[in-house]
Amino acid sequence: MARLSGLALALLLAAATAAQAHTGIGDTNGFAHGFGHPISGIDHVLAMVAVGLFAVHLGGRALWLVPAAFVSMMAAGGGLGMAGVSLPFVEIGIGLSVVVLGIAVAAGCHLPTAAAMTLVGFFAVFHGHAHGAEMPDSMSGFEYGAGFILATAALHAAGIGLGLLIARLSENRGNRVLRMTGSAMALAGIGILVGYL
């Protein structure tokens, strides 16, 4: 188990330097490009999977409300980016989201659902702004937006599925795997932040 965790951590840290799903990079039009945007950067992937893991940990209505809060606030951030509204420290906000959500998963934070929704919603604005700033003004902008929203929901679903799978382990073992997963995410987030600074 320790070897597997070490390998996963090394891969996450190596991938942290390859975060590329950000403003000003590449051709962006249509549904396929929008769908590819969140999954082309390890920072977006880690944050969105962490939201799903966190939602499973909180349980109850948080299982769907926390991811829904992320998606809706990400769409709002995307609208700001598309409108050309400047948002300072977007990349730092994205990197911090990986660190903070990783820590929340690792520490097993038990926030009230409304507080968890506020936390993920705050970070979602940064992710959405990064997506929206690349959204074209053309008709394909709607398709692009639909693509990145669907990809985000799919990543949340992957995090929820992973969390439910971990929960099927014995309580002691499942908690340890969840803590290690969250810790690896937080460390990768630190690597992402170092790359930005």
How many independent structural domains? 1
What is the CA–CA distance across the termini?
33 Å
Q: How many alpha or pi helices?
A: 8
- Give the proportion of residues in helices: over 70%
Overall pLDDT level: 84
Task: Work out the number of β strands.
Answer: 0
Low-confidence stretches: 1-28
Q: What gyration radius follows from the Cα positions, in whole Å?
A: 16 Å
Please state roughly what percent of the residues sit in beta strands, choosing from under 5%, 5-15%, 15-25%, 25-35%, 35-45% or over 45%: under 5%
Shape: globular
Helix vs. strand class: mainly alpha
Q: Could you give a short account of the major beta sheet?
A: none
Task: Please provide the ordered H/E string of secondary-structure elements.
Answer: HHHHHHHH
Describe the model.
The protein is mainly alpha-helical. The chain has one domain. It contains eight helices and no strands. The protein has helices at 2-16, 30-39, 42-58, 62-82, 90-107, 113-132, 140-167, 171-196. Helix 2 (30-39) runs parallel beside helix 7 (140-167) and helix 4 (62-82) runs antiparallel to helix 7 (140-167). 48% of the residues are buried.
Short description:
The chain has 197 residues and is an all-alpha fold.
Question: Could you outline the blueprint of secondary structure elements for this entry?
Answer:
Blueprint: H1 2-16, H2 30-39, H3 42-58, H4 62-82, H5 90-107, H6 113-132, H7 140-167, H8 171-196
